[in-house]
Amino acid sequence: MTREVRTVVFDTDLNFEAYQFEGIMQKFPNHFHDYYVIGFIEQGKRHLVCNQEEYILNSGDVIIFNPHDPHACAQIDGSTLDYRCINIQPEVMRKYVLEITGQEYTPQFTQNVLYQSELALPLHDLHQIILEDKEDFHKEELFLFLLEQLLNEYTDADFPPPAQELALEIMTICEYMESHYTESITLNQLSGLVGLSKYHLLRLFTRQKGISPYCYLETLRINHAKRLLGQGIPPMEVAGQTGFSDQSHFTNFFKKLIGLTPKQYMRIFTQQARAVDTPS
């Protein structure tokens, strides 16, 4: 018999819940929530009825429920369900909408199912960071970009005109991250530094630099890590000296950016050093 696993985490930084269901067989009768649900199917196939419309859900499909959207779902062909979602109370959603659009209101999403959506990947990454309880602003950056796209494409949100180019402010943020990359930096710190809202800081920085603030910070850390590894300093020590939350995070990001693990990269230099020291 398949073992069911149900995990619920409340993120105190983002102020909403993250659910993860694995191996679920349960049929959910018609019901509604008084909060927003944004989720995706990891594995499995489900028959969903929402607002009197029927859907067949598969892996990679994103689901959005507005507060009070009636919905029911059941398994198909005996397959189990692996599912992740975030649950956002209306008052919390209002604050995020204000941050992004400059207007405080509760949005109405126009589509309940986004088939094979590209948003499943950032939603998965956001969810995983929440479950791992990482203390950096990557999750906030991911969520604001995700919600911006959902509001832009699936509501009638009225977005403000693009902010003017603020080169000095962006330079200030870059210089701050370059000087404090070994520390835990928050989005609140960066926005307070230049007097911009978090959302507008993200958009303006990404437009001007071609890379998001978090990716910029992690790239700074990786560049410094490469120099330390080249000096033969072990990866565990390098992770701590360059601001990564743990060695696993460091290893994963290093390999994604460089194509080698930190140990493989360090080995290049230790082998070269041995070759130089070996008499001919």
From TrEMBL:
UniProt-recorded name of the protein: AraC family transcriptional regulator
SUPFAM superfamilies: Homeodomain-like (SSF46689), Regulatory protein AraC (SSF51215)
Residue ranges crossing the lipid bilayer per the database entry: none
Residue ranges of domain HTH araC/xylS-type in the record: 171-268
GO function terms (MF aspect): DNA-binding transcription factor activity; sequence-specific DNA binding
Keywords for this protein: DNA-binding, Transcription, Transcription regulation
Keyword presence, Transcription regulation: yes
Family matches, as PROSITE patterns: HTH_ARAC_FAMILY_2 (PS01124)
InterPro entries: AraC-bd, AraC_XylS_family_regulators, Homeodomain-like_sf, HTH-like, HTH_AraC, RmlC-like_jellyroll, Tscrpt_reg_AraC-type_HTH
